[in-house]
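Hey, I'm writing a tutorial for new members on how sequence and structure tokens pair up, and I'd like a real worked example in the thread rather than a made-up one. If someone can provide the structure for the chain below, I'll link this post from the tutorial.
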Amino acid sequence: MWSYIPHTREDKEKMCKALGIASIDELFDDIPKKVRMKGDYDIPGPMTEDELIVHMQELAGKNSHLDSHACFLGAGVYDHFVPSVIDAMASRGEFYTAYTPYQPEISQGTLQAIFEYQSMICELTGMYVSNASMYDGASSFAESAFMACVATKREKVLCSRSVNPEYRMVLKTYAHFRGVQVEEFGYKDGQVDVDDLKSKLNEEIAAVMVQSPNFFGVIEDVASIAELAHSKGALLITSADPISLAILEAPGRLGADIVTGEGQALGNQPSFGGPHFGFLAATEKLLRRMPGRIVGQTVDTEGRRGFVLTLQAREQHIRRERATSNICTNQSLCALMGAVYMATMGKEGLKEVAKLCYNKSHYAMEKLVKEGFKRAFDAPFFKEFVVISPKPVNELNEKLLKQGFIGGYDLSKHYPEIDKGWLIAVTERRTKDEIDGFASAAGGEVR
């Protein structure tokens, strides 16, 4: 069996002859001998395919994973059910190997898939237009701030501390190099602290940025926040869980000007944190400010329905300094999986998933409270909630892992003021037996 690069000795001799060298070693003559590797690498030799499969299975068997452990960890990435049709569709060569659809005459299938994705995102968010997707929820959130700054001709945004900490870090990193000021306002009982927001909101603010459900899983009063923002001429940017939008009112109908979010919950596996995709949708007024790609519907010279990339105000098409964004691509395959998921589930299916998440998470919270945990906030929540643990969260999670449970997120990493705060996520995949077992095991560890 050949090594990883399947070149025979004869192949190598032919290549050396073509290059006019006697051996491959001559290619490295410019590298001083004293810094070159001497001897062989201390790695195992080659294996047959059968041996390699067994070896990889043994290595994989050492991992704790979502098929072996019941997962109650969320914090931005969730263990939702992914129908098998999604992988079947996404692995088709027409989609899996497709590149950027710059030539519409040979890319109609890819373009139509993206157009359908955009249409469904608009329905979920209640917005006028969606782009073809972004890298992830964090980048879509950050890019929306720049849209607001350009639209309002202001250079400062207010962001809630109840927004995912990773999103806020990405926002600050992006803003640093764009000359945009980011100021944060607090939360009270898990929701936006309206008084703090009012004290910092003025005519210099381009946008108020919130998340609903927020990082604590709490549902924000989007309509009231939108009214406040608009009273000072600022835009409202909301990051949303797409599953929640199947039963909660669309942010666009509550006054949001831009709606962003992480699309992983829509048919994408957790996959160690990525790749996933971010969605971004906005009002008609902001159409020409949107980053990334937009697919539009049109007709050809014979009046037949067709699709093209449109309104391409990115750096690939105009001068860099005039571009709406320097993001020149999108997560089209992941977004395709999101589109297949939404089409497969349909409106009623999405509602059912959302209701299961809501009901099961509330059941889990009640069980944990009975086991000695204290609810951190009284505000309404969707599929995540915070409880206060009687013992350090990291110790609790370590012990639960040995019992077959992936525990919740330790909030002390980013919210030290929430001492022993434990963020629990419950999706439709969790069974009553798993929730009961998790609560019982957690209670046993803290008593």
